[in-house]
Amino acid sequence: MLAGMQIDSAQLDTFAAVIDEGSFDAAARRLRITPSAVSQRIKALESRLGQVLIQRGKPARSTAAGEALLRLARQVSLLEVEAIAAVKGQMEGLRLPVAVNADSLNGWFLPALLDVPRELVTAFDLRQEDQDHSAELLRDGTVLAAVTADPRPVQGCRVRPLGRMRYLSVATPEYAERWLAGRPLAEALADAPMLVFNTKDMLQHRLLRKVTRRRLDPPVHTIPAPGPFVRAIGLGLGWGMIEEEVVEPDLAAGRLVEVAPGNYVDVPLYWQYWKLDSPVLNALTDAVLRAAAAGLRS
Amino acid sequence: MLAGMQIDSAQLDTFAAVIDEGSFDAAARRLRITPSAVSQRIKALESRLGQVLIQRGKPARSTAAGEALLRLARQVSLLEVEAIAAVKGQMEGLRLPVAVNADSLNGWFLPALLDVPRELVTAFDLRQEDQDHSAELLRDGTVLAAVTADPRPVQGCRVRPLGRMRYLSVATPEYAERWLAGRPLAEALADAPMLVFNTKDMLQHRLLRKVTRRRLDPPVHTIPAPGPFVRAIGLGLGWGMIEEEVVEPDLAAGRLVEVAPGNYVDVPLYWQYWKLDSPVLNALTDAVLRAAAAGLRS
């Protein structure tokens, strides 16, 4: 299976199984071999490469040295499934793990999945992750591709720009009347309750700085899911930044109003994916680029 | 501040700061004392209690022995803020951390936040967590309360039943025509693509067992966010279980149909919260019980 390569494929599979399952015993059960066989294979692989590959803990983790090998294991596994499919004429058991940031998953991304030829993919395995974590998941091979706001290529990956999401600052008319009316905006925003998605969500703070040129510290509610975030604004809990496509119907109908009209925050997005000659990954990349062209600003 | 108790409050605050910030140095910055003062306080507290309280690592973590103390620190902090507020006549700086399962956050829960008297809370800090993790967050004091499917009380917490969420199996009419029509349901469901929320989401599998009396292994797509999960079903990617209140309009309009009419899965939910004589927590509990009475089956 790995002819021509310098790494034993059984050892490689065993290494990936230990990391996936978290322990030598669980890997042994999955591979239907004895724990001592697992241990021997790992030791052989480690002495072959002259590196400790696994931190023996609960759970067992890859060392920094092991990460490149872990990605190799995932890449080989994808290419094997595709080769078998090409031989047999049908795709079986291919899971396609992809990380997507929350707002993209809640917005323009989903149609891309429908646009991948059905015969190519058995199962999409999406993860909702912010960009910091996506890079790590790409690096260690947990995901094959990611939508991320980070343009710096992860080693071994290609990067394609997707376009920009534009975020507008919005609140209900009642909220605006209660908290913002009749005084300068920069002053009002110092007291007006604000929503954030999580502690890493700096969109609201970026708008505050744009509008007020100061660092403000208003009361903050954290609502860590895109749908509930939008609904919490609609209920009047606070103001927050919502993607223009999502918020457009509410603005048009007057259910929401802009807090700082004419101000916005743009977030450029990127598609990072493994440099692999994989038909599935190429088809998904094409579909994601089409969905982004339809749903994002260029 | 902790008169009558056997633990020095400065030592307790320092311990909580180390866990919150992840290191002695960061705790020193937050508390505006020197790292060696942090170290001295922690050593004094550990020798006072005869237990190692902190695993010195990156990040620093509480030991099992330290967890009860961590919860004490959070509880004292809440009661202090409330006492100060009672004296000064206004609540300042109170963050109320609460864990909520994804479907509740996406459904009946949010109105409860609006129903807590505004003068009681400065900031809601919601976390979207599944029930396993919620118990841990309650135990170590990261959250004060949680909506969970787990009726077993976490030590030191009260449990109140909230009602049941009912999940129906749904798909688009086109999907049903393509995958389910013209053959026995149990046979069709073995091949028909199915959506799950994450690897712990057993709702679909529970319905499969109810309907087919067998363990099936259909193709599975993972869509880990409630809104996108519903939209992916609406796009025809697969069938899945959606909460009846969320899916009702789509069923009424014929945009979705039931996959296994007459079958459903009920999930009872519970409110777990610290046993504390706290006005804020009592007010939130009342509001959550009212929202549940309005939005859940009894």
UniProtKB/TrEMBL annotation, chains A, B:
Keyword Oxidoreductase recorded: no
Lineage: Bacteria, Bacillati, Actinomycetota, Actinomycetes, Propionibacteriales
UniProt-listed PANTHER family: HTH-TYPE TRANSCRIPTIONAL REGULATOR ARGP (PTHR30579:SF2), TRANSCRIPTIONAL REGULATOR (PTHR30579)
The protein's name: HTH-type transcriptional regulator LysG
Pfam families: HTH_1, LysR_substrate
Organism: Kribbella flavida (strain DSM 17836 / JCM 10339 / NBRC 14399)
Domain of life: Bacteria
Keywords for this protein: Activator, DNA-binding, Repressor, Transcription, Transcription regulation
InterPro entries: ArgP (IPR017685), LTTR (IPR050176), LysR_HTH_N (IPR000847), LysR_subst-bd (IPR005119), WH-like_DNA-bd_sf (IPR036388), WH_DNA-bd_sf (IPR036390)
SUPFAM superfamilies (alphabetical): Periplasmic binding protein-like II, Winged helix' DNA-binding domain
Molecular function in Gene Ontology: DNA binding; DNA-binding transcription factor activity
UniProt feature coiled coil, ranges: none
Family the entry assigns: Belongs to the LysR transcriptional regulatory family.
